[in-house]
Amino acid sequence: MKISYALIATLLMTSGVAAVAAQPAAAKNPLSVHVLNLQTGQPTAGIEVELEQKQRDNWVKLASGVTDNNGRIRALFPQKKTASAGNYRVVFKTGDFYKKTNQKTFFPEIPVEFNMEASGEHYHIPLLLSPFGYSTYRGN
């Protein structure tokens, strides 16, 4: 027997229990990043990441954060700003991270440029990192 939400609400109302309407979920931040260490296979905590937006011929900094113990920044886009279509980039400050860990690296910064096409979508940018190479893609 298939029971719909409307049937459950009707049954609750007829039994004297008020039905509660579903509340919309809070808006999800449109941008997250994740850094994984290719040498160890572990998340990389402590990497500073900056978000910039292309405005005319300049890059304008919108926000920054530091990866947590899981190598993530779950909400990099500014909370009080609405995401709009355009060109953006995240800059992973890998040189600072490797300097703190006394390791050499070939890439002091890794800028990843991307295009946001539609508001309401979520953009996730993973970075697979080693001292002398990296890879990235659009995650979900």
UniProtKB/TrEMBL annotation:
Substrate binds at residues 34, 72, 137. The keyword Hydrolase applies. It is an enzyme of class 3 (hydrolase). Residues 1-21 form the signal peptide. It holds the Pfam family Transthyretin. One of its GO terms (molecular function) is hydroxyisourate hydrolase activity. CDD domains: TLP_HIUase. Residues 26-140 form the Transthyretin/hydroxyisourate hydrolase domain. It catalyses: 5-hydroxyisourate + H2O = 5-hydroxy-2-oxo-4-ureido-2,5-dihydro-1H-imidazole-5-carboxylate + H(+). One of its GO terms (biological process) is purine nucleobase metabolic process. Transmembrane segments: none annotated. InterPro entries: Hydroxyisourate_hydrolase (IPR014306), Transthyretin/HIU_hydrolase (IPR000895), Transthyretin/HIU_hydrolase_d (IPR023416), Transthyretin/HIU_hydrolase_sf (IPR036817), Transthyretin_CS (IPR023419). Keywords: Hydrolase, Purine metabolism, Signal. Its EC number is 3.5.2.17. NCBIfam families: hdxy_isourate (TIGR02962). Homotetramer. PANTHER family: 5-HYDROXYISOURATE HYDROLASE, URICASE AND TRANSTHYRETIN-RELATED. Catalyzes the hydrolysis of 5-hydroxyisourate (HIU) to 2-oxo-4-hydroxy-4-carboxy-5-ureidoimidazoline (OHCU). This is 5-hydroxyisourate hydrolase. It comes from Neisseria iguanae.
